[in-house]
Structures are given as structure tokens and as C-alpha cells.
Amino acid sequence: MTSPRKSVITAWKQASSRQAPLLAAGVAFYAFLSLFPAMIAAVMTYGLVASPETVANQSDQIADALPSDAASVVTGQLDSLIKTSDSSLGIGLAVALVLAIYSAAGGVGNLVTAINAMFGLGETRGFIKRKALSLLLTLGAIVFVVLVVALVAVAPAVLDEIDIVPGVRAAFEAGRWLLLLAAVTIAIGVLFRLAPNRAASGSLVSKGVVVATVLWLLVSVGFSLYVDNFGSYGKTYGALAGVVVLLLWLWIGIYAILLGACVEAVREDVVTPETVEEDTTIAEWRTAEAAGETVPTEVVEEPEPETEREPGTLREPDSRSASLFKRKRHARQH
Predict the structure, then answer these.
(1) At what angle do helices 127-149 and 20-47 cross, to 10 degrees?
(2) d(Cα 262, Cα 257) in Å, to the nearest integer?
């Protein structure tokens, strides 16, 4: 059984050899493109059953979970959507939903590809099966977002309307954050169960899932605190600061998930130290060859077939056999 220390080292090497930061950046870009169509569909759907004021108040609570610069981008888009008339909402709902699901499915498909790469697996599933998987995971993501909205935005509003003692309210507050943590863990567990192109085994909540969840929470909270207290993206990027921060937040979150996928691959023995070493050697060989360097290759010489000897004649020893014989004889004499 691989030791925890060796598992971490192997997972980190796997992430490096498989270009996890670059893949996370690509997935974050497509997630960013699918974010706003999804917001349009969510606001239009929610706007059919809630007043614009309610949507505005709860959207502000949702945005509090993001870094301040990123939240300004999200709330600005939400505010413009909330001002849309009810008739426009009804007309555009179907188109927006189709567009949102299509865009989100494309982003989820890229995430599936990235997780497969972390496992070192090729994609052999057919086109229809891949699209069905992306659609299934997208619908699951929609359910997850609805649950997050209910826990982050709706639950506090309901608690404000109910006259309960402070102790009970504190218990409810702690409970909803624990439920949110459980929802994130289960969502990542389902992703790791279905996305890789291999037969799933073991528990839904495994070592890789826990690592991905903890890393995602830590980097999200840490990045938000950094942006709010120390970051100067506004001075550097100006009006684009919100977009840049949102992209960075998506990138580090997806990177954390891919690192968790590497840990899961090591746990399942899909990735071993030997396979990582082989991948690293191949990558170094290709890099040197592309740079025009002389790439050493190991030449394995086939042994020459023995020729038939006359009875009573001795075989002429080769240089290695002669040298070994001399060393052994010298050792016996001394």
C-alpha cells in the first residue's frame, strides 16, 4: 500500500506532468462563458414566481460569497436582468434555458476531459454517451446551484421572518453551512464517480473527494480575503478588474478539483509512481527533441547467435565474460 507521503508526491507529479494549471485555465474560460447564460435562465425562471425586489435582495446575498470585484460583475448583470419586464421574461425564458443548458454542458464536457487527463485515461466513450454524460452532470449542477441558492439566500430570509430565540437561530445557521459543505462534497464525489473513463469503485466520499473539497474551500476563502484586503486589481486592470478576479477565482477552484482528481487516481491505483515517472520521462524527451537537442536513446543489442563448435573446442569468451572471470579469480586469490 502506498504511504500517504508518497501518494501526495505522486499526485503532485501527476498534476504537473498532465498540465493541470493549463487545463484548469481552459475549463475556467469555458465556465466563465457559460456563467452568464446560466444567470439569465436562473433570473428569468425565478422572476416568474418572485418579485424583482426579492430577486435583487437575494442576489446580493449570493454575491457575498464571491470576491468583491467578481461580485460587482455578477450583481451588475443580475441588476440589469431584474429590470427586465415580466413579459420579456416570459418570452425569452425558453430560448435562455436552451442557451444556458447548451453552454453549461459544453463547460462540463471540458471539465470531464480535464479530469480524464488527471487520471491518465483516454476517452473511448462514443459521442452520444459523452454528450449524455455532460447533460446529466449539467442537470446535476443545476440542482446543486438551486440548493446553494436555497441555503445561502433563501434560508436567511426565511429565518428573518420567523421569530425564534437566538440560540435556535445560531443552530440553524450552523446547520445550513454544514449542509452546504455536504452538498459540495457530494457534488465533487458524483463528478469523480462519473467523469473518468473507468469503472467506478469504492465510496462516493473518498480521499480524493475530501482533498478536492477542502482545497476548494480553502483557496476560495483565501483568495476572497486576499482580494478584499490586499489585492490591487482595480489599479492594474481598471474596469476589467471584476472580470479578471472572477476568472482567477474560477481557475483556482477548478485547479483544486483537478488536484483532488490526481489524489483519487493515485488512491485507485489508476496512477502509480511508475506511470508518472514514465510520463515525465516522455515529456522531457519530447521537450528536448523540440528544442533541437541531441536526444540520447538506449540501444539494445541483440545477442549474436552461437555458432556450432566442433566437439572438444572451447567457446571464445566475450569481453564482459572475460572481465567478470578475471575479477572472480582475483577475489579467490586474495
Answers:
(1) 60
(2) 9
Q: Has this prediction a pTM greater than 0.85?
A: no
Q: Where are the domains of the chain?
A: 19-274
C-alpha cell at 1: 500500500
Round to whole Å and give the CA distance between 234 and 125. 45
Is residue 196 helix, strand or coil? Answer: coil
DSSP states along 198-218: S---S-SS-HHHHHHHHHHHH
pLDDT tens-place string over residues 151-181: 776 677 777 777 777 777 788 878 888 888 9
DSSP symbol at 168:
H
How many Cβ atoms from other residues are within 10 Å of residue 246's Cβ? 22
Cα(107)–Cα(29) distance, integer angstroms: 9
Query: Exposed (0-12), middle (13-18) or buried (19+): which is 16, by Cβ within 10 Å?
Result: middle
Could you give the CA distance from residue 58 to residue 61 in angstroms, rounded to a whole number? 5
Q: Show contacts of 45-48: CB within 8 Å, 24+ apart.
A: 45/93, 45/97, 47/81, 47/82, 47/84, 47/86, 47/89, 48/86, 48/89, 48/90, 48/93
